[in-house]
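Table S2 (continued). Query chain:
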Amino acid sequence: MFPNLVKNQSSYSLFGLVIFLLIFSFSCGNSASSDSTETINSSESTDSQRTDQNTDGTESSPEMPEKILEGHTEQKTDDKQPSSSTFEEIDPTEINTPKYDRVVILGEEFLLSDALAMGLTPIAATATLSDRFVGINRETDMIQPLPSTEANFELLASLQPDLIVTTQNLINTVSLDMLEEIATTKVVTSTDWRQRVIELGEIFETSNIADEILNEYDTLISETKQSLASDLTVSVVTVYPGNTIAVWVDGPSNIPQTLIDLGVELFPNKDTYQNVRYGRAYLSLEQISDLNSPLIILSQSNEVSGESDSLDEIEKNSLWQNLPAVKSGNVMIINRLGYPGVEGRMRLIKDFREGLTK
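Corresponding output:
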């Protein structure tokens, strides 16, 4: 389906603390989550003149996870989930954390995913969709999902946490003293997704596992690069409700940043438009023709009400239909909320690589 794109082929925000949404991730996504995504917060606005949030974060620190669009309700549908064909998940050794038995994470799936990968299971965490976690291929049934769009300190206190882990982006909005009155609070200060993983490892005293996770990511990047065409160019697009078109031209959101790490060239890129924030630029209908890369990646979510309908409308536009990638069938659709944390980034690499061979 994607000829000449592969060499040698026959082939985060807060649970009841954030009273407003920041602009994803997406990812590039979640997106971020960043990772973080990560993806990134990428709370998405349907107003092309409004700028962010993000996920990694999605991960608005450029690393907050992608959130539900402000003013749009959740739509519980069977969203396309990440491919079940994934890397072999890291199986960290059990860790003994007697000092902190009741941990609450305020950072959506982008922080939660990495905490789980390090062997730490919190009692509760904020969720991008408020009532459930998405994009995590680990057991989360024992974790209470907390809403990320309403302030509720009573609910947080009722959980009787002995540790709260959050991001600097939240502390920029909510006083650290307010959280410290409830429990010991540790803040992940970096906006760089890799450094956030290292900081989490230090908080949980699992630095060795944090290093292992990052090393596995780097190895997968290196191995996958060898199979990709050196001149691979991609347009990464999200169509939001209201027929709002965004093109991802740079990181740090988890999805575009992971592609950049793979050596993939994004076009349009960060130099194409003046009003770029959080690695994303909004396009008018007349600018659809700018998406002239040989491959288009649609980073979408059926979980957001109206998003699928808007995508359908854009796909009927003659400018869209005449894009080179559309005419040749080289359009890949991925779940923008499906790749939080480092493990999510690694699943994205696998899914991207496999998508090129279909």
